[in-house]
Each structure stands twice: as C-alpha cells, then as structure tokens.
Amino acid sequence: MKVPASTYRLQIRSSFTLFDAAATVPYLKSLGVDWVYLSPILTAEHGSDHGYDVTDPSLVDPERGGPEGLRALSEAARAQGMGVLVDIVPNHVGVASPAQNPWWWSLLQEGRGSPYAEAFDVDWDFGAGRIRIPVLGSDDDLDVLEVADGELRYYDHRFPLAEGSCSDGDSARAVHDRQHYELVSWRRADSELNYRRFFAVNTLAGIRVEDPWVFDQAHAEVKRWFDDGLADGLRVDHPDGLADPSGYLRRLKDISGGAYVLVEKILEPGEELPPEMSCEGTTGYDALADLDRLFVDPAGEAGLDALDARLRSGEPADYAAMILGTKRAVADGMLRSEILRLARLVPASANLSELVAADALAQVIAAFPVYRTYLPTGEDVLREACAAAARQRPDLADVLDVLLPLLLKPETELGQRFQQTSGMVMAKGVEDTAFYRYTRLGTLTEVGADPSHFSLDPEEFHRRLAERQASLPLSMTTLTTHDTKRSEDTRARISVIAELPDEWAATLDALRGLAPVPDGPFENLLWQAVIGAWPASRERLQTYAEKAAREAANSTTWTDPDEKFEARVKAAVDAAFDDARVTTAIEDFVARTNAFAASNSLSLKLLQLTMPGVPDVYQGTEFRDRSLADPDNRRAVDFQRRETALAVLDAGTLPADFRDEAAKLLATSRALRLRRDRPELFQGYRPVFASGPASDHLVAFDRGEDSTGAGGTPGALTLATRLPSGLERAGGWRDTAVELSTSMRDELTGRTHGPGPVPVAGIFQQYPVALLAPVIGDNA
C-alpha cells in the first residue's frame, strides 16, 4: 500500500478543473506536497461547486475536466513522483434535477418496476406505492403543473411520465395522479417523506450500496481509476450514513487493491475508530480539535462564562442541556420523517403505538453521545443512551425497556436503520444548530469538537499525540477543510480572546451599543466572526451573518425568516463598514491581537504538519486565510501568487507584496519538504519539555525513531509558542531553555543550535516556531 507523506486538498469544479489542477502540480511539488487530494470528481449536478451531489457515478464530470482531465492530472502527478487521493460519495446521489440522474429518472418513471428501484431507500408502502417529491410551494400548486414534450413540468422542474399515463385531453393534474411519484409541498418533507436523504437535504437521496449490484455499478468508475493506475487512495464521505460501513470499506479495499483509505468520521472525545473498519484513519477533525484547544487559555474560561451568562440574562449556557434540546427539536422537526420510519418498523408484538414509539426513539437518539454505533461495537453506548433517555423521560422507561432489545439487533431493519439515523440527528442538532448557539468562544465550535471542552494542557496533548502515533499513525491531520466553520487563521485570532476575556467583553459591549442585535449570544458569535475574518468584504460577512442566524434558529430560521431580526443583523454588519466608530472598535481589537494571532497561526501550522499522522493542507492555506463557513471557504485560490512567493522565498529574498504571507509559507514549505525528503526523522514521538520560568508556553516534540524512550535516535524537533499574550505579560522567555542532544539546524532560519541547553529566546529570535533537524554527519 502506498502511503502519502502529506496531501493538499484541491476543490475541483468548472472554474478550476482537473486540467487546472494538473497545471498546479509543479508548484505543489515545490511546496513539498506528496499527494494531490481531489474533491469529488464524478458527474454532479450542473454548476455544483462542491461535487457531493453526484448524478452519474459512471463518469468523471465533464464540467470538471472529464476522464481526460483526470488522466492529465494523474500523469502530471506521476511525473513529479506524487500520488493522487480522491474524495468519493457512497451514501447519496443528487436528485435536484431528475433528468440529470439516470437512476432517479428511471425510478420516477417506472416506480417499483425500475431496475434501480432497489438502489434507493424508499418506503413504498408508506407512500401508497408512490415516492413523494417535496418541490411544490404548496399543495395547491398542483394546479399549475403542465405536460410538455412528454414530461410533467412544474416551473423549471422536469419529471418523467410513466408509460401510458398521458392521453390527449388529460389535465396535468390527472396525469400527475397516475405517476409513480407524488409532488408535494416542501413543508411536508419534515414528516411525510418516504425516501432516505443525506441529513435533511431533500435533493440528496440515499442509495443502498450494501447491495452488491448497487455497489458494483456505483463504483465501476472508481475501480477503473485503480485498474488504470490513475489514483492511489480514497477519502470516503459520510460513512456513518451507510447501512454497513465496515462491509462497505472491505469491498472498497478489494476493488482498489488494498489502497490507502480515509473516512470522514467524527470521533467524539474519548471515542475510537471502530476496529472493524478497514481504513487507515479519519480525515482529521479529531486532530484539529486537540490542536485548537492547546492554544486556548484555561484562565479565560471563567471570564467568558461570566460574559455568556450576562448575554443570556442568567446562567451561562449548559451545553449538555442545549444539545439534548436541539437534537430533540431536529428529531421532532426536520428529521421527523426518519423517526417515523423507524417507528413503523417496530413490530406489532411490541404493543406500542407509532407515536409512542417515535417519542421514545427520538429521545434515545437525542441522548446519544456519539454519532452512531456499529453493532456489536458500541452496544454499551446504545444501552447508556436508553438509560439516559429513561432518566430524562421517566414516563418512557417501560417503552424503552421494550425497544432496547429490538435496537440491539443489527440484523433487523429497525436495528440497522436506527444506526443510520442517529448520526443525522447529531449532525443537524449539534454541528448545524447548537454550534451557532453555544457562542462563548468560536474556536471551540468546530466540526468534530465538543465545545464544553475548553482547553487542553501540554501534558494531555502529548499523551494524545503519543496514542495517535501508536494506534493511527496514517490517519489524516488537518486545520481547515471545505466543511470547517472557520478557517485555521480565523480561529487562531479568535483563540486570543481566551487570553484577553475582559478586553473582549469591553469591545463586545461597545459593538453591541453601537450596532445592537436583539440576541446577545448571537452578537457574541457574530462579532467574534467579524474580528476573526477581518479584513473581509461586506458581502462575505453578510452571507455569513445570515447563515449563522438561521442555523442558530433562535431568532430566525431558514424556513420562516424573521425579516425584522435579519434587518437588524444586516444593519450591524453594514455598520462595520459604514460607521467609523464600529470600524475603529473592530480594528483596534484586531491590532491588539494581531501579533498573538500570527504566533498562534504559525504554531498551529507547524505542529499539525509535523505531528503524528498524514498532514493535509487545504487549498491556499499556505498563505494566511481568514475564511468563514461555506461557501466562504471555497473561494478561488490565486496559485500564481503563491508560486511566485515561494520562488522568491527560496531565492532568499521577499518583496513587500508577500511579507505578510512569508512566515506561514516558509513554515509550510519547510515542514512539508522535510517530511517528504527525510521520512526517517518522523518515525516516533517523544514529548520535549523546556526548563525555566516560561516553560508552560513552549510545546515541543521529537519525531525521531524509537524516540518514545531515552536514548532514541533524534528526529525532527518541533518547537512552538502557546498562549503568546500571557507570555508577553510574563516578560517573555527570559532564561527558559531546551536541551538538545546533538547539533540541529533550524529549517526555517538556517541557524544551528546545540548540543546542550539552548535558550528558547535564541531559537525564537525570528519566528515563534522552529523546526530543527539533526545536522547530517554530526556525531556530537
């Protein structure tokens, strides 16, 4: 199995095709990247920027460069000695435009008689033999349907006609009533849908890859990539939605010849990757959470809790209670259809009404501490969730006693489908709702994290990294992805707030007074985002503010927007640009924190690129990138500018145009090159501790072979600064020192240090980080 030393994620779309990606390969090689990592490339909905709405799995998307583009990219990578990792989407397909998806078109036209009927996860009986399509503005809109060119039309929506279902003189409504599908109001999707979706996205329909023929047809093109030597590894999107994730991964290993595979799996704190999963690890959100918390000052927790309590006119938010509520609201709301489908599967012998069973099932899912079980793995989690649900709702205790044995049977449809559903509720209730309500520090509400875990001390950080080296050395590490709610540099600045809680409270009070929004916790979220992303365009911040307010669903929602509230939000963002007092308050706090944010940014980057695991660089983040949630984090990247900056950096000079980007580009390129070119320096893990008054502000580790104990061969030594504001207040490094066992060269500055005790201040003369490598041939 080929394994990457590092990866670089590229977002492939019509405006940046596989041919464009091929043209960037020489730059990526120079940067030090080992493998190119591609977003989904199979044919997707026309105009899709992300590619997760695959409409035809049999072909590389012509809009993204087609098969020829993939071959060009692969050949370019091979010419540079690089590998190719591709993101694939097994759980669902895009059905927004039925005519673009031949499987879905066939299903709608032929119903249960379609050769693809078993590919989709449809509860036909619940729909009286028809699949419900929630596209109408209201059910009254059936009167505006038209029949044209052998299709049923609803404005721009096109649907097929069943054979023999339309005669001259028939009304469009009468024709509609003879179809294998029923067009219904979009508002009925919450409780009346009868097909499995991706989360609550009606235009992404789940497919049953657990059936061998479905797997084979959906993966024929993926298999060709490996048969033809075009790809080396795969990233699997949302495996938790599958009926049998472990079985799926085994089949994926078979068709890829045992290739390197990662899963987009969210691991909650303390949760481990199920041992039966045939993969090399996750896509790195667990690493991201640990890294972020290392740079959050625990001393700031009390002050930020006090601020949160004041904004809520009472106690600070109780996160456990919050997510119990948001998950239950999701189960009773946008995912009610999925809960009711589970309730319909409860056997009649249980003697439970559908509504009572649904109530109890929703409560168990709301109490789940992780995304899902993989029975028998996770049986204890299911038992504890049922016990917790019974404590929360004693009136359901007897019902839960009846349900638990049924849910523990993965061989049944109920037991299997329950596992597929719990993760949907977790994702929508936590990531997409609670993370916009729990606002004391934005850094903490990132995908895959538990924001009630405020900070991480160096000792625990080292323990986790040693465990990562021992158990998941090939798992990905990351700082920014296409799904992160804030990029690494945005979070690096927001984290400084924990070091300056009183100053932040004063700044926030000033902003609230000048540009008030009638939702205190949301104001905290909004102004942290503005500070983190500044300078940013008005359009970017307005788009984020609207999305964040609607996701929080406290004062406005996607389905029923509160125009007055949203006008106040818009006015607040406008004030950042139009009111000099607001602009000054923002820029003063940014100036106060900028140096600390830059230190955090470099330290985060260097630690992530050199820690155990396979580091990924999200496109463009070798420069500072202060993005917010999608679509902001999928903006175009100026690769020519980065290539020019790297060339002049390598030449030893840097023009003023690139000075702000130089340090991050330097750290990224030197770390990636060292990992690729001297892999022997990254074979183990040993914490390194400084001595002296500021030792707590240094985090360092040695990646040498057998470096877990004394006497190991020295490897790459990473040193980084944490809590830089506190370090400044304490008077700097002073006589803090680190012991070096041999002469070591700093890859960032070229200076040599050691052996013996070396002052940290001397190592950090130019940057708040250092990457030391043993001097070749030095035997000191």
From TrEMBL:
The encoding gene: treY
Name this polypeptide is given: Malto-oligosyltrehalose synthase
Coiled-coil portions: none
Glycosyl hydrolase family 13 catalytic domain segment(s): 11-657
Pfam families membership: Alpha-amylase
Cited Gene3D superfamilies: Glycosidases, Maltooligosyl trehalose synthase, domain 2, Maltooligosyl trehalose synthase, domain 3, Maltooligosyl trehalose synthase, domain 4
SUPFAM superfamilies found in the cross-reference section: (Trans)glycosidases (SSF51445)
